[in-house]
């Protein structure tokens, strides 16, 4: 198991580990960077040809085209930045948790905590992503 968990540090910097787990964590970090940069085509290319993305409030998004449709047509966020605080990989599974700050399309601010779980294939492409948001009661 590879764990990278120093809160407040750059999770992508200074890790010489070339294990499959470290590569999967690096790919997940790249995934969030591409979203924040608005490069949805490159972000979707990190997924296997037939992935599934589970996100609260939606039916599963199927295939790269379904994920791209969400990010280019349905996502309520105009812009913002993910801050990953913890990344843990075990075998073909990666879990991350962090926060997001940004702006919705209507101009209102958004500030939330999230966790994501990824399953990767033999080449490191994402087969599945499950997103969860912190929702206080």
Radius of gyration: 14 Å
Helix content: 25-40%
Number of strands: 7
**Strand portion, in percent?**
35-45%
Shape: globular
Structural class: alpha+beta
Strand order of the biggest β-sheet: 1-4-5-6-7-2-3
Report, as a whole number of angstroms, the end-to-end distance. 33 Å
> What average pLDDT do the residues reach?
90
Provide the succession of SSEs.
EHHEEHEEEE
Largest sheet: 7 strands, mixed
Helix segment tally: 3
Low-confidence stretches: 6-16
Give an overview of the whole structure.
With 137 residues, the protein is α+β, with helices and mostly antiparallel strands. It is built from three helices and seven strands; from the N terminus they run βααββαββββ. A seven-stranded mixed sheet has the order 1-4-5-6-7-2-3, covered by helices on one side. A hairpin with a 4-residue loop joins strand 5 and strand 6. About 8% of the residues have low confidence.
Quick structural overview:
The chain has three helices and seven strands.
Q: How would you summarize the topology of this molecule?
A:
Elements: E1 2-4, H1 20-37, H2 40-44, E2 47-54, E3 61-62, H3 63-74, E4 77-90, E5 93-104, E6 109-120, E7 126-133
Parallel strand pairs: 2-7
Antiparallel strand pairs: 1-4, 2-3, 4-5, 5-6, 6-7
Q: Characteristics of this structure?
A:
137 residues; 7-stranded mixed beta sheet
């Amino acid at each position: 198991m590879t764990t990278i968990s120093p809160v407040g540090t750059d999770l992508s910097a200074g890790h010489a580990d070339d294990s499959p787990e470290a590569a999967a964590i690096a790919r997940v970090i790249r995934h969030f960077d591409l979203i924040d940069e608005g490069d949805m085509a490159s972000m979707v290319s990190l997924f296997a040809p037939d992935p599934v993305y589970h996100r609260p409030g939606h039916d599963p998004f199927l295939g790269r085209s379904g994920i791209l449709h969400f990010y280019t047509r349905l996502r309520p966020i105009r812009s913002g930045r993910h801050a990953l605080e913890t990344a843990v990989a075990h075998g073909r599974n990666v879990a991350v948790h962090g926060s997001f700050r940004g702006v919705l399309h209507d101009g209102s601010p958004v500030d939330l905590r999230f966790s994501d779980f990824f399953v990767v294939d033999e080449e490191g492409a994402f087969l599945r992503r499950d997103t969860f948001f912190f929702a206080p009661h």
